[in-house]
Known about the structure:
The protein is 35% helix and 22% strand. It is of the alpha/beta class. The strands form 4 sheets. Strands 6-7-5-8-9-10-11-12-13 form a 9-stranded mixed sheet, sandwiched between helices. The chain has a 6-stranded mixed sheet with strand order 14-15-20-16-18-19, sandwiched between helices. Helix 9 (225-237) links the parallel strand 9 (217-221) and strand 10.
Amino acid sequence: MTPVTTFAHRSVALFGLGGSGLSTARALIAGGATVAAWDDGEAGRAKAAAQGIELVDLSSADWSGFDALVLSPGVPLTHPTPHWTVERARAAGIEIIGDIELFCRERERHAPGAIFIAITGTNGKSTTTALIAHILRRAGKDVQLGGNIGTPILDLEPPSEERIHVVECSSFQIDLAPSLAPTIGTLINLTPDHIDRHGTMENYAAVKERLVEGADIALVGVDDAYSHAIGARLMQAHCEGQRVIPVSATRALDWGFYVENGKVIYREAGHGPEEAETLGDLADARALRGAHNAQNAAFAAAAVWHCGLCCEEIAGGLADYPGLPHRMEEVGRRGRVLFVNDSKATNADAAEKALLSFDDIFWIAGGKAKEGGVEPLRPLFPRIRKAYLIGAAAQDFERTLHGAVELEQCGTLDRALRRAAEDAALSDAREPVVLLSPACASYDQFANFEARGDAFRRLAQDMHAQSRDSGEAS
């Protein structure tokens, strides 16, 4: 835990008692603050009460006694309308902040030189964050990994000069962190997202820009128009002491970090291409297949390079990175057949990345359909040997796939996996792939995408164990 000493002997209103809200309440109390916590939901209040956190109905509280409102990132700050606690805080003239801001203040007070790597972007930030942490840990560094991925930031060990914090930041968290100033700030990419919470794409991009604007070293993607424009603005402004470095996964750059011919390259400004250094070969990195993962790898390599790691350490970390669960996760083999769990692909855009990463695909798809279905994936249908349809979207998907892809209505995941494995085993492909990349939400048959992916992994591993016990080639 990181106790929040910057609010010692002060009174704080805290709203939102999910995972990060409870973590923040505990950290504030540990640092000596008086916390008045509340949540609109009974479940959150019950969890807080069980942990000894004082509950105060903020709707009837006297806000003149509070020094700040600490807001959970899931609570609207501006759009579609500000939450009622935001209006109360503004009327009382107190600041509105979140857990990332509290961490930043603790770092500034106790260990301003501690390395803090903050990662954001629309897509790929969880993989990039986990990959950075993996490479650094492999090199023997003391790493704390958290934020929007897994562990809330204030549940991590406190900042210190010997410790590196690698933190994923959502736009909601950035919006509540006015003093965010990481050692290394990473903006991977920007595409329209969360417009309901930011009003416009321009507002969304402006929030994301703040993470790299305050960084000592700003790593900025140049493969989309919004990120490219942010990088150009920062380079033009070039705040004193700040370095702004471009990163690309789609083309060689005159300088910066980029991917070329499957290799991650660093070229220093003013140096010729013959002087560029190869930091890693993605052909060795099975968990980093696909163009989107090439972008993640380039950013991770750039971040750890600026932490002082050498080429050999970076290359090794890229090669043996195990990947995140449910994101193109290799979960087993049966003879030549590879089983891949991409349950996190809950829409067509996400499924596209997996379909682009493999050939000879025996594709399990379906669930609770998102708007647009799988029609956007039509250009990739030639990669699919056969589709196995499950869940509520199965009939709609069949209408889209009919005549373009051989398909089978399977209903449930277990039947789909069994039939896909049988057909893949008969394939003449060198490495046929049974791919769960549903392009759908899960909640017609599963509680969430994690439960769906866990079921797929378990079934695939059972199948692998059965084949081993029966003496099949593995």
